[in-house]
Amino acid sequence: MEQVLKLRNLKVVFPTDYGLIRAVEGVDLDIYHRECVALVGESGCGKSVTSQAVMRLLDSPPALIRMDVLEFDGRDLTQCTEAEMQEIRGKELAMIFQDAMTSLNPVMTVGNQIDEMYRRHYGDSKQAAREKTVHALELIGIPEPKERANSFPHQLSGGMRQRVLLAMAFACMPKLIIADEPTTALDVTIQAQVLKTLRGMQRGCGTSLLLVTHDLSVVAKMADRVYVMYAGKIVEKAPVKELFTNPHHPYTVGLMAAVPRLTDEKKKFTQIPGTVPSPVHKPSGCYFHPRCEYATERCRREMPRLEPMGRDRQVRCFHPLGVGGKSSD
Q1: I need a labelling partner for 302 at 20 to 30 A (CA). Which of 33, 118, 153, 255 fits?
Q2: Where in the chain is the domain with CATH 3.40.50.300?
Q3: What global pTM score does this model have?
Q4: What confidence tens digit (pLDDT) does each residue in 120-165 have?
Q5: Does domain 3-223 have CATH number 3.40.50.970?
């Protein structure tokens, strides 16, 4: 299978007056043609920083960024100049940000903002670009696309603004789209519509998708493979069906147990005890050990490695869980 993205040993540190914030520590990612990969974890675990580092949107300084490999479609992005990255962004590698209201320019109509994609990357005339923009808005499910193209972002609903971002992302049919919490601010009904549109466009255009989220219900609907992230490190990697049927890392098990279910007879909300550690003062050993009921002295002393656990599965744990949520030790 053709590999679209290869990331190896990404490390991102932010120096502050309070110490070093180790946002991302040694993350590896692989994304292949036409697949959807989910990057899952609680807020503050480093998901968005990872996606911005892949897009090379982090300013350095203040961010201190190191990586062994960043290959996109066989091209080494670490050697690209900013001018070259501007040619790649939008046309071959696109991103959908969390908040459409702050991502869109408030003093430009949404049509003009999409027009820029076609004029910048294809050299289209104003008229040709507008025709493509109206067609893109129509494909993405916006009613009366010709009129909506003349609207400013504040004149559109949250769902429509998010669809505008989808239209911009898919405008040039990129090979990879990074969607960073694309439905965070939307209600459940609109969220379902946007996700259906996103999945349909991804499959129709043959685009690969990196979906950054903390919502496991979204992961179950959208993803082919999943990377689970905690405190800046990948703690588990697995195909989506295997992850949901038999999670191995205690953190993954905790995340799934915390999802409310209508069939829950106990009628009790389950949560992972404790809080995510401060990125400035992370615990020794395994970062999850203060919240883990299976932690041993070894967990408190040593950081486990990401070890293979069968075909295309990896887990970072000394005591990986097996079927039924019991430790395999």
Answers
A1: 255
A2: 3-223
A3: 0.91
A4: 999 999 999 999 999 999 988 889 999 999 999 999 988 899 889 9
A5: no
